[in-house]
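Re-run with default settings, no changes from the original entry. Doing this only to confirm the output is reproducible before filing.
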Amino acid sequence: MQGAVSRNMVESLSVPTFRVGYTITTDALDSLYKKIKLKGVTMSALLAKATALALVKHPVVNSSCRDGSSFTYNSSINIAVAVAIDGGLITPVLQDADKVDIYTLSRKWKELVDKARAKQLQPHEYSTGTFTLSNLGMFGVDRFDAILPPGTGAIMAVGASQPSLVGTKDGRIGLKSQMQVNVTADHRVIYGADLASFLQTLAKIIEDPKDLTL
């Protein structure tokens, strides 16, 4: 396992990448999570769903360059989410995350995590991701950069949601929960404006998350 991870990381260094960061207010998402977590919904599934819905509107961020010369606009939105396991790291994939309801997506995620930790994942369950999420927020990490997995166009590093003082529309100072996300992308297929637009859309979805439960 560690050998495969090492080879992939070395391969990724040959790809010209760049990074874009964004601050997202999470009060509404945190409130939604508190309401529906007793129904089995996980934060990982919520983030995957939000990301998938944003990718629907920005398909170039879901694209890839697998051989260095040809570019692919992936027809499916498959969100790979990094999971630490004994001996390394693996990225179980939530297939068609934009089309699956949040409750089914959460059940599928729990199933994938259990299989990953038991080392029972089948290849199609970890090798078909079109966009990757890496979330270290549960460890209190506020921001970090992630290395782009080979064969994909982008990976998003998600930090912890933390209270922050912000200016309000009426000129006052308020307290809001915010998280930092940093996206690493393949510059051969994705440009800065593409990521900026994608992150704006993602922020709108997370800050007004009503579509996540449709």
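Residues 85 and 119 are 9 Å apart (CA to CA). The helical segments are 2-12, 27-36, 43-57, 102-117, 192-207.
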